[in-house]
Amino acid sequence: MKTLVIVGYGVKLRYRNGVFQVINGDSKEEASPLELEQIVIASSGVSLTSKTIRKIIEYGIDLVFLDSKGMPVGRVYPPFINKTVDTRRKQYKAYGRDIGVEFMKSIVWSKLLNQAGLLKRYYHNTKRLELKEPYYIIRAEAEKILEYSGLFDEAREYLRQREAYAARIYWDAVATLIPRDIGFDGRDPDSIDPFNISLNYGYGILYKECWKALVLAGLDPYAGFLHVDHSGKPVLVYDFIEQFRFIADYVLIKLFRRKWVPSIDNGFLTYDSRIKIIKAMTEFMENTWTHLEGSKTPYTLRQVIKKKAFELASYLRGSRNAYEGYVWDW
User: Using CA atoms, how far apart are residues 143 and 263, in angstroms rounded to an integer?
Assistant: First the structure.
């Protein structure tokens, strides 16, 4: 299954003779609906008819619209959702209770282990000593999280503090991996350096993957635990994505270390640069296979995101004894 990315002004998406066609001037690209899992519209200049949208729905294809920063601004879901009513009742009930505390701990624990794993991998590849100590510090922080015991509000504050501390250590180490002329000296979503702008876009791609998975699992993406509720903000997506942020980090670090530099216009990535990031992340998620604990079946990272969403729904419903955040096979 593959993702079809469409970007550019004057581009048309249509359904004809049993296939989807992308028309861009004199060029035409065709894709079988049976091979598509997702269609991403990554610019405002793409047109498609209601007939095309109906066919997308009919084939159960995820249709996503991204803004210039890579954040999903709209989407059409396949018309099936799992045990929504029961799942959401239990999700709301878990807020403020031990089950919510354990979920928060697992999410932060897995995020930190993935950060440590990335640094460890690059330490072995580069032998940079400045990566060694941060790895051990972040590993130690992850162990503290497992040992912590506290009530919901206290736990949330403690976990956010540990997460922020580990993030400073992590991004200082990552900065040593990025070419100096990029101007990256730490994570800042508002920074205009190419790496931070690319990270924003990469995380936007992950948001749509996590959002889709959570909704299909029957969860309310706006009712989170670790992140404080804000009107109109999908805070459960913000929680859930933490265990998968390494995907964007890993892909983009690799791109920049291979001397790729995105083109930026007025603080935004150009269309070509957006496509480059989308394709690199999509290929990584679709072609990287891994095993989950207790299963002999290999999964792609995209499948892992979906499976962990359904595991979370089962955990909140009481069908699972625990939820374990995802840690990649570093």
Answer: 40
